[in-house]
Structures are given as C-alpha cells and as structure tokens.
Amino acid sequence: MAQITCVVVFADGTRCDRRRKYATGWCHACDGWPRRNGGKDPNGRTPKGRLESGTCLVTFANGAPCGRPARYAPGWCVNCWKWSREHGTSPHGRPYVRSNGEVRAELEAAARVSGDGCVILDGLGYRWTTDTVTGSQINAARVVWMLANGDPGDDQVLHTCHRGDDGCISIRHLYLGDQARNMLDMAEAGRGSTASRGELSPRAKLTRDQVLDIRRRYVKGARYPHPGSARALAEEFGISRDYVPELAAAGRWAWLEDDAAAHEGHTEMLIAQTVHVVATT
Questions:
Q1: DSSP state, residue 30
Q2: Does the N-terminal peptide bond of residue 225 adopt cis geometry, omega within 30 degrees of 0?
Q3: By the 8 A CB rule, do 61 and 77 touch?
Q4: How far is CA 37 from CA 40, 57, 84, 220, 258, in A?
Q5: 18 to 47, 85, 166, 185: CA distances (angstroms)
Q6: Does the reported pTM lie above 0.70?
Q7: If residue 13 lies in a helix (H) or strand (E), which one and from where to where?
Q8: What burial class does residue 66 get, using C-beta atoms within 10 Å of its C-beta: 0-12 exposed, 13-18 middle, 19+ buried?
Q9: SS3 for 199-247, per residue?
C-alpha cells in the first residue's frame, strides 16, 4: 500500500505525521520548508514548535553561550527570539547580553557623566530595564534621571540630543517636559507621525502662519462678503468653506496651540537644566 503520510524524517529521528500531498512524498509544510530555507532538503529539519534543546543554543559575539531556557524553535530563548524579530536575522553572534549588575553600573555611570557626548546603552530593550529604583519595567533614561535627581513625578524625561531612540542615557542630555513638548521634540527630530503633520504633509494646502491668520480673522456667523466670513476666507486661501470653522475652532491643526505653549519658555528650561547639570558634576 502506498504511504499516505509524509516521508520526511526530522532531526530527532521521528517521522512527519502529516498527510502526503506531493509526488516527492512531502506534506504541504515540508514542501514549503525548502523555499524558506534556501532550497535545502526538508529531511533532517526541526519541526515547527519543537525545541532542539532545553537551553538556548545561541552563542554571543564574544563566544559566550546564552544558556537561558529555550522556548522557541530552533532552541532560542525569549530574548534571542525577540532579538531576531527586532533585527530580522538570526540571533547567533548577537551582542553579549549584560547581567543586571552590569546594566545598573552603566546607568549609574550615565547619571554621573561629565562629557558632552551621547552615552549609548546598546542591546535588546536598551530603552527599558527592570534593574532599577522601582523594581518594575521602566525607561532607562528615566532611571538615569531618578538616580541623578530623584523621581520626576508626572513629567516625562526628554532628550536635547534627539537620540532617545538610539539609546542615549547621558544625564547631560536629559531634561523634563510634558507630552506636548515630547511631541514637538519628535517633530523637530523628524520622527513619528508628527514629522509630516501640518505644512510638512505632502497634502497640506496651508502653512502654519496662514492657519493662525484664519483663526485670528474668522468671525463666527458673519455673512459674505464680510472679510471674516467662512466663504470669504475660503476663497482667499483656496480651501473648502466648511474647513474654515474647523480651523478656527482648533478641530484641525489642534496641535498648533500645544506647540505654541511648548515653545514658550523652552529656551529658559534648557538653560536652567544645563546649569543644574553642571552644578552636580
């Protein structure tokens, strides 16, 4: 009798028990495996979801084995699997993962740094750490601020260098601000959706100054040809008449008000922060 199950034998000696579908004797999963692995023969492969080892088989760039409990095929731990997802490549040869003590030492050093350059905390999850003051997962830059200056409360810890996403944790590049200031920093650095909002959007018909001009001149309830009516302003700026009241009421370009407030006093805040940092070094 012809065999009705797949003929592929896995690396551990067990046979694939899926139903045979192709003339090669392979099932659908085994037939697709070579296309995802450079044309290799599926015989001897590790089945999906089956672990090759109880401990992670990844070896770091410095030659040290990972050794954490394996959870994913082909024998990777959670951290190495996340690293492969983040970088789109195999975790073998990835940077050495520091111990909690090593990470804490780097955070404390960053809180005392006196140089003007960025201090980059490399590695998977460099922006987050649990080896910190609170014992819970928290942003690494925030930990550095807490070590140097205490709990910032409801304020956010921001970066003057705009390199927070790169892993900068230098205390000399950190300052406190609110969400509006954070969004403005993202726009200035060319990051996030705010980088293409307003007149930077390819679909924008107005500039920042024109929007502010419309808000200043619009008169609610005024009838055309009054220069402050919605129709008159729409014809002047080449936009829809219904768009004018939305702009005036901050239903559109609402972030302009937040940006104006965030800009006000920002220079004084940075100067005060610089003086504070110099005084503690």
A1: H
A2: yes
A3: no
A4: 6, 19, 16, 66, 51
A5: 11, 28, 46, 54
A6: no
A7: none
A8: buried
A9: HHCCCCCCCHHHHHHHHHHCCCCCCCCCCCCHHHHHHHHCCCCCHHHHH
What are the CB-based long-range contacts (under 8 Å, 24+) for 7-10? 8/42, 8/43, 8/45, 9/43, 9/44, 10/44, 10/45, 10/46, 10/47, 10/50
Q: Residue 190 — very low, low, confident or very high, per pLDDT cuts 50/70/90?
A: low
Q: What is the pLDDT of residues 255-279, one digit of tens each?
A: 676 544 444 444 444 444 433 333 3
Amino acid identity of residue 247, one-letter, is L
Instruction: Find, among 135, 184, 140, the residue nearest to 162 by Cα.
Output: 184
Tokens of 65: 């084995």
Cβ-contact 58, 76 below 8 angstroms:
yes
- Please write the tens of the pLDDT for every residue from 198-249: 666 656 778 888 888 999 999 988 999 899 999 999 999 888 888 898 888 8
Instruction: Name the percent of the chain lying above pLDDT 90.
Output: 11
Quote the CA–CA distance of 199 and 252 in Å, as a whole number.
12
d(C-alpha 7, C-alpha 14), whole Å: 10
Q: Length of the chain, please?
A: 281
- What is the predicted pLDDT for the residue at 226? 92
Question: Above 50 in pLDDT, residue 281?
Answer: no
